[in-house]
Automatic annotation (TrEMBL):
PANTHER family: ARYLAMINE N-ACETYLTRANSFERASE 4-RELATED, N-HYDROXYARYLAMINE O-ACETYLTRANSFERASE. This is Acetyltransferase. The keyword ATP-binding does not apply. Belongs to the arylamine N-acetyltransferase family. InterPro entries: Arylamine_N-AcTrfase, Papain-like_cys_pep_sf.
Length: 262
């Protein structure tokens, strides 16, 4: 059963609860540190990736916050938005298409993220994206550079009418994270039949690649199959984990489970 006090305890948060930007930043970062992303849940769902998008908040809270399992975008962001509403924030949903390895974008409804309207400003909140991405919420102010832990972020407008979230580390140029239309969505939007989403779901299910990730103070660790991405102080490192024991150890650390049972 959803419980605000238990949620805040799981996030190791005992600070102010007034709905301010500072509180929002702290809760967002702590959420990414406390609760992992885990796409292995999609294995059982097969091509029906969004069938449970309109989550049972109480059931998902019990499984994720109290039970300690990871979640996917709509579970993690759905829970977090419920928490923010309890604390007095004005929240809503956006849909995003994630940048693919060839720099194209997935379907507009590929990803579920949240937003907050606060003091006349629009903020992106997303604790359900494995990354690399922002650890603290982003203000939707066109072209404004927003530094976070050695990495710069900005939101730019594209010719397609989308807003694009971009990131830039200490080395390299700007790269897209995902794009979105700043149009509020409802969970029901993901339940409307869509050939584009169906094709994407089939391709994702066929890849067999499981992605897990968790943030730490100032950075992120993302395990994509046997490839480990570590982002720390604006520097991104990628290496393969060929040793099964090392893979199990890293996986256990991300999921915070005993390596013998991971």
């Amino acid at each position: 059963m959803f419980d605000t006090a238990a949620y805040l305890k799981a996030l190791d948060y005992d600070g102010p609860l007034d709905p301010t930007a500072d509180t929002l930043r702290e809760l967002h970062r702590r959420h990414l540190i406390a609760i992992p992303y885990d796409s292995s849940l999609n294995t059982a769902r097969g091509e029906a990736l969004w069938a449970g998008v309109d989550i049972d908040v109480d059931a998902v809270f019990d499984a994720v916050v109290l039970g300690g399992r990871g979640g996917v975008c709509y579970e993690l962001n759905g829970l977090f938005l419920a928490l923010l509403r309890e604390l007095g924030y004005e929240t809503g949903l956006f849909a995003a298409g994630i940048r693919q390895v060839d720099d194209s974008f997935g379907p507009d409804l590929e990803h579920v993220l949240g937003f907050v309207r606060l003091d006349g400003e629009l903020w992106l909140v997303d604790v359900g994206f494995v990354g690399p991405s922002y650890l603290e919420p982003l203000r939707v102010v066109p072209d404004e550079v927003q530094p976070q832990f050695g990495t710069d972020f900005r939101v730019v407008r594209a010719d397609t009418g989308h807003h694009v979230v971009q990131r830039r580390g200490r080395v390299g140029d700007w790269r897209a994270v995902y794009r979105f239309h700043p149009r509020p969505r409802a969970f029901a939007d993901w339940l409307v039949p869509s050939p584009e989403l169906d094709r994407f779901a089939r391709a994702l299910a066929g890849s067999g690649i499981v992605v897990r990730g968790r943030a730490f103070e100032g950075g992120q660790r993302i395990l994509i199959g046997t490839r480990l991405v570590v982002v720390e102080d604006g520097t991104e490192r990628l290496r393969g984990l060929a040793d099964p024991e090392e893979h199990a150890r890293v996986l256990a650390e991300i999921l915070r489970k005993d390596a013998a049972t991971a």
